[in-house]
Write a structure and sequence with these properties.
The structure is a homodimer.
Chain A lengths: L1 H17 L27 E12 L3 E6 L2 E6 L7 H9 L5 E10 L14 E12 L16 H6 L1 H4 L3 H24 L3 E2 L16 E4 L5 E5 L4 H9 L4 E9 L11 E10 L3 H15 L13 E3 H8 L13 E2 L1 H4 L5 H8 L3 E8 L2 H4 L2 H15 L4 E5 L5 E2 L8 H11 L6 E8 H21 L12 E5 L4 E3 L7 E3 L14 H4 L8 E6 L2 E8 L4 H11 L8 H8 L5 E7 H8 L26 E2 L2 H4 L4 E3 L3 H8 L1
Helix pairs in contact in A: 5-7, 8-14, 12-14, 16-17
């Protein structure tokens, strides 16, 4: 009869090994438990807890808090413990204390089912105040309501909040799982690349770092792009890095001058290979409490995304897609319609806002139209479907019954729906309607219509981007849609010489709930093709990239990669309004550290080794004089 | 009879789970195997390999290389495969190819037992040249002999070497294990802290980063010291980060302007707690092929280290300790001895070089003495024990028989040993002898004496450092021996007010084979004590640290931490001569990137947004003019 027991034990061991054990938070320290750990099973044990006083009442009890939870501590009232009572009664809220005592069941009826430790309390026997808290600059309870500037100034107090503790710990956990997937399961090598580098040609957004050689500067790169490609040339085969990146954009809401990307590059891989890798990565690292995600992710071409959603990062959690109604209206006798359709890429398109009549006020509709006008220079016409089924619009008098019916069918218009219609050039029309689609979705939700499931995560690949775009300042010249190392689509490679504007790229974006959370490409690995793109298409001086071109000549393998924007990804997972909520010490939108006051003035002597001096703007010069 | 089989299966599963599976290097790509993978068991399989041509011989066979190894490819000779033969015969060495073929046993007698894949070869059926390699700037075989500057310029070629592949992959693996230990086993949170920060007072070694606000600069911090302490105030409890740090020291051999440290901080911990944590961390992450390390590590006070090894980072792999012979010589009638002993910390000390007569030449001994003179301004006297047991030295005529015998016993002098003796002030004498100890060990080893086991790893804690040191430029003023946040030793706290020079700190260094690989401390958590240290002892303006002082007032827990120098640690593990051998893209010792040529000049227009201009040194101004 020994075998079954042995079997059970063996199976138990197998299970114990496969389920990762919880971390031991009490190793290397004196505490026996965290403040979130004690249950009825611990009753009778002598425990030592460390934490912050969350609340204290009339010298009778207090609530002790640490990163894991809250525990109720009963303050002893007998004469023998009068010093303990005195200590604990007089310590201000947020003071740091050690308490040793016995775990006891709460008196019947006083259990708190909302509190994980709500079945027990700890009867304090000894206590020590490790640090008194001076008067707080505000009540912690009201902290969340304080201005963000104040919360940034006292970031260490904000970090004690449940919300930030949760966000930062989840971030750490997700990144750890990503590392396990990449490193342990798929043989990627974590390689640290330099951040003091050479300025990228046209790298206007790169911070400069003066060196001790007069006139020479390092640059903080926006990504390890060149290095990761050189690692492939160096035979590293599979590289990843949780990479710190820098971007100087001046003041930008919800951008940070330094940010983090999960940076990945592989040799001998194609687009599908990278996509399957990333789907597996996200599935593996996805936090359990956020449900599961299904793979493969759907995919959409850039052209489809623009046509149906008016953007290259569609929010596919809801419908309201853009509908092409050019054919419905083509035969009508409407001036602006005919006008629009006469242009090469002229089109008539519309979105249908469900129940718009009931959920949107007139001023909402006006503001939508104004926004299209001011942001996209696009006129919008509205059509409403009345309760009797008929259409109300300035257009209707120009449309026959049949056309009206076709319109209703094409847009699937129900009673009380509102249609926004735009006519003009394809990209402008789609972009304007794409923007209105998102704005009206927010308006509908604000008015109480449940449109997007707040717990849903819709991943989407957007592919087949154009390789080049006309420059904004001079449309006869081309620039890279992403970066000059992106490989052309294999089917379009011959167009590179004849009509580069028509070449699609092997770039892919990963979109989550309408946010770009990643992007990458298969890279050019032929020196000849890379030189052609730089010199002939982009008309750039290839000399500054001579080291890369030379590397491609000396045995560069085909390779490709991707980078995921970690801050954005985590903020979407935890449903935070800003990436500042998933960064321990974020900068303000002006790029300032409000806690330590950075950036700050330095003395001319400190600038001397770097051979630079400040060019003061005139008014500041004057102010300094006075 | 089903049970035993079930049992076996369960046990097998348990074993399979507990032993981490090897990573799958062939996921997401077309290759079936890496070039290091095929064995006799694969014979008959059709495989697809990707790699670099390492070697090709007369159109008969070639050796294909990737990160995992080498595989011999047989080039087909029959007419039907003539195109394959043509392709593979004409591709230059280091070209990138795909080969598909059948795994076959090598003909008897042609197996290569030195090659892991030496039992098989792959008979190529199809092949593709993915990238031709142009003429290499030098033969790869000779690369190791080339100048380091050339290897840095073509770093991507150097990265293909077995040596660098091994170093970078081991580094990645060790860091991954460290993360598992910290994050998964002990509940540490990986938190990324900013690198664009405020200048530390007196932070002369910090790189500056100009901001878009005129005259204001960020600084790249030398470590996340302030942030990690603020995380503890924020209740994060256990923090770690593989942190990028910056240090501008101008030209320094074997220093890098950016480097990496394993940065750790814990709340509610004492010195012993941090030490046990680090011992466990290193034991857990230690690469198997380097043997195992035993814990706990030995510990030594700063005073002991200085007295016995003449340094705060003793190499304990060998003896030759410094011996105090003051008492032996005290009664002698030697002028310089009496002179030295008359000073407050006067001492006579010596080291004994085993078999020095046989292994050291006269010029070696002269150079040792000269180095003590030039570096430490310390005179050295030598004593030799002759084959007949007697002593030969300028000293002997002043010493009686008994004194000579005492000297021989105190230093355990054998025949042919050489003793180097120094008299003077304690610290100077010990430092000079400590330096001579290391120099003579290298000389002995160069001459063929096996002194230090090259496979041995001797970890050592050095503790009880002084908290403050006299400033070099003005010894009446004090500066922090490490940094101003280090807590005083609990037994010495009262001395802080009466005699700060006598206060020992709660700082600890981790030393490996005579190299400092880590350092940390328990920090001051009392705002009052921190303010006293800054204002009264160090006479610094505490205003620049007001945010930290305020944080200590608002519920800072007791805390401490450590940082391990990752580059140095890994270079010692792989026995690399320089940290440049464990960094993918290191800078030269002048801080230059020789591959991309950074730092580099930028245009005045690029400096404009940052309100700075270059102050050209005069001669450069002149050169620019001409």
């Amino acid at each position: 009869m020994a075998l079954p027991r042995l079997l059970a034990r063996a199976l138990h061991r197998a299970a114990a090994v496969s389920a990762p054990a919880a971390p031991d938070f009490n190793s290397f320290v004196v505490r026996t438990n965290t403040c979130g750990e004690l249950r009825s099973a611990h009753v009778g044990q002598k425990v030592t807890l460390y934490g912050w006083i969350q609340y204290q009442r009339q010298g009778l009890f207090l609530v002790l808090r640490d990163f894991q939870g809250l525990t109720q501590i009963i303050i002893p009232q007998d004469e023998a413990h009068s010093h303990v009572k005195k200590l604990l009664s007089n310590a201000p809220v947020e003071s740091v204390v050690r308490v040793t005592g016995i775990v006891s069941p709460r008196p019947p009826g006083q259990e708190n089912p909302k509190m994980p430790t709500g079945d027990i309390e700890v009867k304090a026997e000894t206590a020590e105040i490790l640090n008194f808290c001076k008067k707080l600059p505000f009540e912690i309870k009201d902290f969340i309501k304080k201005s963000e500037a104040l919360r940034m100034q006292y970031r260490y107090l904000d970090l004690r909040s449940l919300r930030l503790q949760h966000n930062l710990r989840l971030r750490s956990r997700v990144v750890m799982r990503m590392r396990e997937y990449l490193c342990n399961l798929h043989g990627f090598v974590d390689v640290e690349t330099p951040t003091l580098f050479k300025r990228t040609p046209g790298g206007a957004k790169e911070f400069l770092v003066p060196s001790r050689e007069a006139g020479k500067f390092y640059s903080l790169p926006q990504s390890p792009q060149q290095f990761k490609q050189l690692l492939m040339v160096g035979g590293l085969d599979r590289y990843f890095q949780v990479a710190r990146c820098y971007r100087d954009e001046g003041s930008q809401p919800d951008r940070q001058p330094e940010f983090t990307q999960i940076d990945i590059e592989m040799s001998f891989v194609d687009q599908a290979g990278i996509q399957r890798l990333i789907e597996g990565l996200l599935q593996y690292s996805w936090p359990e409490e956020r449900g599961s995600i299904t793979t493969p992710f759907p995919s959409m071409t850039y052209e489809e995304a623009l046509a149906e959603y008016g953007t290259d990062k569609p929010d596919t959690r809801f419908g309201m897609k853009i509908v092409d109604i050019s054919d419905v209206l083509r035969l009508s006798d409407i001036q602006f319609v005919q006008n629009a359709l006469s242009y090469p890429r002229g089109t008539i398109r519309a979105i249908c806002i469900p129940q718009g009549v009931r959920y949107l006020k007139n001023k909402d509709l006006e503001s939508l139209k104004e926004s299209a006008k001011s942001q996209f220079n696009q006129e919008i016409m509205e059509i409403i479907r009345r309760p009797d089924g008929s259409l109300k619009s300035l257009l209707t008098k120009f449309l026959g019954k049949k056309q009206q019916l076709e319109l209703i069918q094409a847009l699937n218009m129900q009673v009380d729906d509102v249609v926004l219609l735009a006519a003009g050039e394809h990209k402008q029309v789609c972009s304007a309607l794409g923007s209105l689609r998102l704005l009206s979705a927010s308006l509908l939700e604000a008015a109480g219509l449940a449109l997007r499931d707040p717990t849903a995560f819709h991943f989407l690949w957007v592919v087949d981007f154009p390789l080049f775009l006309p420059k904004a300042e001079n449309p006869t010249e081309l620039e890279s849609a992403h970066h000059p190392f992106t490989a052309p689509h294999p089917s379009d490679a011959s167009l590179l010489h004849s009509d580069p504007t028509k070449v699609r790229s092997q770039h892919y974006d990963l979109v989550l709930n309408g946010n770009e959370v990643g992007g990458g490409s298969i890279r050019i690995h032929s020196a000849e093709q890379q030189r052609f793109v730089l010199e002939k298409v982009l008309k750039e001086d290839s000399e500054v990239l001579s080291h890369l071109l030379e590397a491609l000549e000396l045995g560069a393998p085909p390779h490709g990669g991707i980078a995921l924007g970690l801050d954005r990804l985590i903020s979407l997972i935890v449903d935070a309004p800003s990436i500042r909520d998933v960064i321990a010490f974020p900068k303000s939108f002006r790029g300032r550290d409000l806690m330590a006051n950075a950036p700050d003035y330095v003395t001319p002597e400190e600038l001397e080794p770097y051979h630079i001096q400040v060019s003061w703007p005139l008014e500041e010069k004057e102010a300094k004089k006075n």
